[in-house]
Amino acid sequence: MSSSSLFTDPAILSLVSASLVLLLAQFYTNLVINRSLSPKMKAWVVVKNGGPSEALALKEVGEETTTSLPEPKGADVLIRVSHAALNPADLVFMRHIPTWVPFRRQAIPAMDFAGQIIALGPKAAAAPSHAAKPLVVGTRVAGCLNVGLIATGHGALVEYLTVSSELVARQPKSFGDSNAKAGPPSAGLLGCAGQTAHLAATDARAEAAFGVAEPRVLINGASGAVGSLLIQISKARGAYVAAVCSGKNADFVRRLGADLVIDYTKHDPLPAYLASTGEFHGANAFNLIFDCVGDQSLFLKSPAYLTPRGALLCIVGKGPMAVPYTLRNRLVPSILGGTPRAYRLLGMSPSGERARAVAKWADEGGLIKEMTIDSEYDMADVKKAYEKQATKRAVGKIVIRVQGDKKVDR
Asked: Transmembrane helix: is it a keyword of this entry (predicted)?
């Protein structure tokens, strides 16, 4: 059996899937989840595996036996969710984690959330992560749920959400003073997209690239949620930015600061174009490449347009080949056919600390001016929103308006 067929054989894929389920089940038993009774509330749930149209249903979840919202415990906070932002990972969980396992029954999707605190656990006000400015009822917050919570179905497409105070950050003041204004960009910026951009931009290889005189940065997938943030961050760090996107998004990435736009529809394959044109050779080679698409050939051909001390940072693993590609890119020496450039496949673990750092960039550092919203859908139209997410053609974030503003008594 060839190495490639190992990753396409149905029996092996089933074994890997079963192993993942068992691993998640073990992880689930160790999670600290607020299991207090909650009243009936609207939520989107995964009822079967598949694409959004067949997998999702809008239901009422909770208990008939109570009308009171759950009291958060410990350092948890109860949030009235105003917005949720969608991510490609939602679709992966929706399609591939079996709905028959106990912790995936009535599984609620979506990682990113924004809303307002309506109750605090007894230790939340004194949480060390918010010591400088303690959380109170009425504080508008946002964040990203961790993989354990999402894998076990505790997602953000629900009216009320209980999370650890450690996971949340205050919504940036620069985004506005209401849920309607600040909720959509906060859900994206303090969620998966913003935290991934922060991870990439603060990687040691990126810091080294930004530290050279007149750094040159290439961003593949520049019009997406993460790519559009990396344009702003790179420009704020003094870099020359070449943005790869389709021609229809050229004006958009230029507005964010891109110095050069490369239309991948006109220069396909992209690596061959970069290697063949003299525009990116020698002194004009890039010091850093952010790959937000996951193009393995972009790294393989990189010696032609990436400086010897430069690096390619990839934020997207391409399915079952992600691990073999990473091992090849990191471990195979050039004498054996390896690529003599630095490579990193980044994996972001959501945290409130990172969310708060991103919020500070938006409010104080000047590195981020905006979180672009591709579209905003009503709660009833989640299937349409996920179908658009599946096209991989969103410019910025797709956001769900879970519920409208409501005065919260402080």
From this structure: yes
Strands 41-46 and 286-291: unpaired
Residue 154 DSSP code: B
173-221 confidence digits (pLDDT tens) = 999 888 889 999 999 999 999 999 999 999 999 999 999 999 999 999 9
Structure tokens at 89: 């990972």
* Cut 0.85: pTM above it: yes
Interhelix angle for 225-236 vs 192-201, to 10°? 40
Amino acid at residue number 12? I
What is the spatial distance between Cα 352 and Cα 83, in angstroms, rounded to a whole number?
Answer: 18
CA–CA separation, 236 vs 242, rounded Å? Answer: 14
State the alpha helices, DSSP H only, in 211-269.
Answer: 225-236, 250-256
Q: Identity (one letter) of the amino acid at 159? A: E
Side-chain-facing half-sphere of 359: CA atoms under 13 Å: 26
Q: Which two tokens stand for residue 207?
A: 């810091």
DSSP secondary structure letter of residue 333: -
Which domains does the chain possess?
A: 23-166+371-401 (3.90.180.10), 195-345 (3.40.50.720)
Q: CA 362 to CA 109: how far, in whole Å?
A: 27
